[in-house]
Structures are given as structure tokens and as C-alpha cells.
Design a protein that fits this description.
With 628 residues, this protein is of the alpha/beta class. The strands form six sheets. Strands 2-3-1-4-5 form a five-stranded mixed sheet. It has a five-stranded mixed sheet with strand order 13-12-16-14-15, with helices on both faces. A hairpin with a 3-residue loop joins strand 4 and strand 5.
């Protein structure tokens, strides 16, 4: 079907909504990355087989053809439903019943309950603190403090059916934009104060306006879907779960700046995202929403996909452009910025996935609606990948201005295990480390910048008291050093020197002078690096040094890791009063570091000890202790 007018969009929306309404029940199986890893594709196949065996299965197309109510069950996949800790997730509509940790063996019982209009309570979420069974998704604390804008369709619609996207208001934003002048579209985005969700927080409307003012024959719109931060999967979930929102945002941006061509740059490690985007582009083209004379206007636009090879530096704008052009992904000096001279020298706007997913909703609901969410200077919402030592990990979206404490304690459910909260790393390798005393800080661009951190792409790693912040800093510096493109000396050599210093510290050979040297080198890297990734590379080290200096001092002065994580700083001691001289520990020691006899107490020579822990495992009397 070709869509040529807004009325055509409304007809598709109405017919699909009526079809959904005719189904007695809809089962939505999460196909986000977390649930797929937990086996949700097997759950889907088991549900399909069970429904077909009972002659209960129906499809949207059958419901449209029937034109009447149907007693069948509509089974669909969806994008990430967010609560990854509890996957595989299965939601039953219209009741909103959410089943957690579902396996193929649970399928028959679920279908039995649907036929009996009942609920399988053992599969519903159990609140750990109260042991209360919570049946409906909206009543689970994990979801209650969230506001979904960019993720509004993720976990709800079938991502590879354009009609499902249109039924949720899809392409209405494009229709509205095409009724405006390009200048009016840019003004709407500027009035909403939509700031880039990729890390820097630069106003999208200002970037669009710069490109729009350039009078050239060719301009480009680029979606940055590279997302290289460890543990980050927000953009991936949008591309997999609501790809049409990305296309619609690019179409609106292309119209606003006068571009006719767009590129989606997505890493090849996201094969499902690549597949979904290709399907989405084909669907939109088939329906006339991509290509020539879109919605009966003079506006034409085409989109290409460029698969990246996984280089972290290609998340930086100029390096990304170089990669699309077929050159090695390395940044160049700026200015000129891409909005002035970007892809093949033409004005180019680059927005990340989440930024573009907000665009159509701003056009549909208005700038005032968007500004009613979040804070004055950071309106709207932000998605985060909530990971680490927190009870409820997953994909979340919260209003800007919510505190870190609200996220960790309410949405995340608090710290898991025995250890209390120690720190939160925000912004990935480019971000900073917040202490438990800073948990009241609000999550917005400006507040985080004041304490040396940044939102970044949205990674949020919660650490408990058993985490070594020195090792965390070493981990991020190792990642950054490996991913450095090597173009500028400050980043290439500076990050290498910082990594070597951190390695000395965790190995037990560091000195107090090394701490001052880390600060000196880190600040030099910040000042001298060519691109934003290099300039932000020292952030995890400098922030942990500032907030956890005592822990660094324990490593270099006492040769002790308070968290007991650093292998070379482990120390085993034999308690003489508990030792029965059985010699089990001495027999398993690979370096003969343990000596003693029936009359002499056994001791561990720390100079010979390689910290393997074999003696600790061998002792049945609890006489050997690891001292932190």
C-alpha cells in the first residue's frame, strides 16, 4: 500500500487498531538482547506451537480479513521490555499481566491460564523485600518511576511491521513537519531544547540550523548508532525494537536542513539491528515514506546503512564520517564542524539514535509537552543501561532531573548481596565515578558536568563495597588505550602511560609519586587530545583519584587492596591458634611458600607466595584467612 497523504496514514492506523481490538488476547514475547540471551526465541516457538495445537493462534492479517471479533490469540515479538534481570519476559494483553523468567516448560501452563481467564502467579514478579506477588507490569516498582518517550514503542509493538508503528502514531510527526516550513521545524526542535543524547548534550536545533543555513546542492543526515561504550545497549534496543522512530527522525531532520540522503552508521556487532533497519527501510520505501515525493510533496529522501567494524573512536563525528567515506576512522581537527563541512565536504548533521527517536514525538505533541518533562535546561528523558551490583538491571528511561539515588534504590531495587553502595560509574569510559555521598545529584547535563562526570551515552554501572575502584579505573583505561586511533600523541602515548601506572598500582609496585603523575598525565591528555574521546579518556581515573584517594593510598602505601580484588595484593595468613599442623596447606602450595612442622607453627612466606589461594581452599579448619 502506498501512503500519499496524512489521511492514508490515519486509515492504516485505524484499520490496524481495529484488528488489534478484535483479538481476544495478545501475547508479547520480549526479543530484546537480554531476553534473547535467556532463551526467549525458544519461548516464542513453544508458544506458537502450543497455540497452533489448540487452534487458538491468529494473526493481524487474519483479523483484518475477518472484520469481526476473534477468540484467537495474537502472538508477537517485541523489542526490549526493559526488565532484563527477569528475562525471559512474556506480557499478556489487554490485562497487562507480566510473566518473568519464562522457559519453554512454562508455556502450556500460560496458555491454560489464558483459556481459563486466570493468572499463573508463580511466574509473576516477586517483590524481594515484601515477597508480594505483583501481577501487572505497571505495578512493578522497576517500571513505576519511568517515563517512556524514546522507548515508548519498545516492548510494545512488533518492530518489523510498519503498521504497528503507524498504529502508535508513527509518521504523524513527519506529516506535521511537511506541513511546516523547514525553518518552522527547526524552531520546534529548538523550542523543545532537545539536546543530543549521545553524550555532549549539544542542542539539536542549533546543529540543524547551522546546516540549514549552508547554501549547497548536497547535504547529509547521519544517524550515529555506533554505541561503543562497554555495557551500553540503549541505542541497540531502539534500533531493534522501534527502528521506524529512527527513520522518521532522520526524515524530519533531512527535510529541515535540506538533505536528500541519510546514512545510519551501526556497528556490525549488532546483526539484529542491521537486519531490522534493512527491513524497516524496505517497508518504508514500499509504503512510499522513503524515496521520491514523500506524502505527495517535493521532498525526497533515501537512507543507506553503513556497518562499522567496531572501533570505539568511530563514535566521534569526524572519525565516523571518515569511515563512511571509506577511509580509516580517525578524527580530524575542528572547526570546521560537520554541520558546515562534513561527509564528502558537504554540510552534515549527525545525531545519535536516541536523539532522533525523540524528534517525531516533539513534532506530534509539541515543544511545550517535551519541556514539561525533565528540567529547564535538560528537558525530556534519558535512557540508561542500568548494570552492575544492583538487584534490577535492565534498560530504563527516566525524566532528566531524577537523582542517582532514585534510580539505584527505587528502579534498581537497591544493592544486591551483602555489600553496600560504594560508587556509580556514569557515562562509560568517558564518564566519571560518583560516590555514595553524591547520590542526591540530579541526572542532567549541567549538574553532572559540575562534578566532573557526564551522562555520556547512558551507561550506569553500580558498584558495591566489594568493588576496587582502582581496578575499575584500570579496566576503563585499558579499554580506551586499546581503542585509541593513535593519531594524536597525547591520547596515544598519554593513555598508555596512565595504563602502565595503574597496572603498577594494582600489581603492588606503585608509589605515592605515581598518583601525582597520573593527575599530571591525565590533565595533559585532556588538554592536548584532538577529539572529544581523547579529552574525556582520563575522566574515570581523575574522578576516582579525587573521590577515592584513600583507596589508591592503600594500594601504594600499605600494599593492600581494601576490596580484596587485586590479585597481587592478596595476603594469606595462618592463624596459629587454629592450625593443627596437618600440613595440607604446605602440600598444595606450588611455590613451597609454607613451612612448619609438628612442633613449629606453620607460616606463609609472603615473598614466595603467588596469591593463588590454593592453601585457603585446602585448609579444612578455617586456620587460613585472607587479610585485606
Amino acid at each position: 500500500m502506498m501512503i500519499n497523504t496524512r489521511e492514508d496514514i490515519l486509515r492504516v492506523q485505524q484499520s490496524y487498531a481495529q484488528a488489534l481490538g478484535r483479538a481476544a488476547t495478545r501475547i508479547v514475547v520480549c526479543a530484546g538482547p537480554g531476553c534473547v540471551a535467556s532463551g526467549s526465541p525458544l519461548v516464542y516457538e513453544a508458544l506458537l506451537g502450543e497455540l497452533q495445537r489448540r487452534n487458538l493462534h491468529t494473526t493481524v492479517d487474519c483479523l483484518m480479513e475477518a472484520g469481526r471479533d476473534d477468540s484467537g490469540v495474537l502472538l508477537t515479538n517485541s523489542g526490549c521490555q526493559g526488565f532484563c534481570q527477569q528475562g525471559s519476559l512474556v506480557r499478556v494483553e489487554p490485562e497487562g499481566v507480566l510473566y518473568t523468567r519464562v522457559t519453554p516448560g512454562d508455556v502450556r501452563e500460560i496458555v491454560d491460564a489464558i483459556e481459563a481467564h486466570a493468572v499463573v502467579e508463580r511466574l509473576c514478579y516477586q517483590e524481594p523485600s515484601t515477597h508480594q506477588t505483583i501481577v501487572h507490569e505497571q505495578d512493578i516498582p522497576f517500571y513505576q518511576n519511568q517515563v517512556r518517550v524514546a522507548l515508548a514503542n519498545c516492548g510494545v509493538i512488533d518492530p518489523v511491521d510498519i503498521r504497528a508503528y503507524i498504529e502508535r502514531g508513527g509518521y504523524q510527526g513527519l506529516a506535521t513537519a511537511l506541513e511546516y516550513t523547514p525553518e518552522e521545524v527547526i524552531e520546534s526542535i529548538s523550542q523543545a531544547n532537545l539536546r543530543g543524547r549521545g553524550g555532549g548534550g549539544f542542542p539539536a536545533g542549533r546543529k540543524w540550523a547551522i546546516a540549514a543555513r549552508r547554501e549547497t546542492d548536497q547535504k547529509y543526515m547521519i544517524c550515529n548508532g555506533d554505541e561503543g561504550d562497554p555495557g551500553a545497549f540503549m541505542d541497540r534496543c531502539i534500533m531493534e525494537g522501534d527502528p521506524h522512530s529512527v527513520l522518521e527522525g532522520m526524515l524530519i531532520g533531512g527535510y529541515a536542513i535540506g538533505a536528500t540522503t541519510g546514512y545510519i552508521y551501526v556497528r556490525a556487532e549488532y546483526p539484529l539491528a542491521v537486519q531490522r533497519l534493512r527491513q524497516t527501510i524496505a517497508e518504508a520505501t514500499e509504503y512510499g515514506l522513503l524515496g521520491k515525493h514523500i506524502l505527495g510533496t517535493d521532498f525526497s529522501f533515501q537512507i543507506h546503512i553503513k556497518e562499522g567494524a567496531g572501533a570505539f573512536v568511530c563514535g566521534e563525528e569526524s572519525a565516523l564520517i571518515a569511515s563512511i567515506e571509506g577511509r580509516r576512522g580517525m578524527p580530524r581537527p575542528k572547526p570546521p564542524f560537520p554541520a558546515v563541512a562534513g561527509l564528502w565536504g558537504a554540510p552534515t548533521v549527525i545525531n545519535n539514535v536516541e536523539t532522533l527517536a525523540n524528534v517525531a514525538r516533539i513534532l506530534t505533541k509539541g515543544a511545550d509537552w517535551f519541556r514539561s518533562i525533565g528540567t529547564e535546561q535538560s528537558p525530556g528523558t534519558k535512557t540508561f543501561a542500568l548494570t552492575g551490583e544492583v538487584k534490577n538491571t535492565g534498560l530504563i528511561e527516566v525524566p532528566m532531573g531524577l537523582t542517582v539515588e532514585d534510580i539505584v534504590l527505587q528502579i534498581g531495587g537497591g544493592i544486591r548481596g551483602d555489600g553496600g553502595l560504594k560508587a556509580v560509574q556514569i557515562g562509560g569510559p568517558s564518564g566519571g565515578c560518583l560516590t555514595k555521598e553524591q547520590m542526591a545529584i540530579t541526572l542532567d547535563f549541567d549538574s553532572l558536568r559540575e562534578v566532573g562526570a557526564m551522562i555520556g551515552s547512558g551507561g550506569l554501572v553500580v558498584m558495591n563495597e566489594n568493588t576496587c575502584v582502582v581496578e575499575v579505573a584500570r579496566f576503563f583505561m585499558n579499554f580506551i588505550q586499546n581503542e585509541s586511533c593513535g593519531k594524536c600523541t597525547f591520547c596515544r602515548e598519554g593513555t598508555l602511560q596512565m595504563l602502565r601506572i595503574l597496572q603498577r598500582i594494582v600489581d603492588g609496585t606503585g608509589t605515592v609519586k605515581d598518583l601525582d603523575l597520573l593527575v599530571e598525565v591525565g590533565e595533559t591528555v585532556q588538554l592536548g587530545s584532538l577529539c572529544g574521546l581523547g579529552k574525556s579518556a582520563p575522566n574515570p581515573v581523575l574522578s576516582t583519584l579525587e573521590n577515592f584517594r584513600d583507596e589508591y593510598l592503600s594500594h601504594v602505601l600499605d600494599k593492600r587492596c581494601p576490596a580484596g580484588v587485586c590479585q597481587n595484593l592478596r595476603r594469606f595468613v595462618i592463624q596459629a591458634e587454629k592450625c593443627k599442623h596437618c600440613a595440607r596447606c604446605a602440600k598444595v602450595c606450588p611455590t613451597e611458600a609454607i613451612s612448619g612442622s609438628r612442633t613449629e607453627p606453620y607460616r606463609i612466606d609472603q615473598a614466595k607466595c603467588i596469591k593463588c589461594g590454593a592453601c585457603l581452599s585446602a585448609c579444612k579448619l578455617g586456620a587460613i584467612e585472607e587479610v585485606h
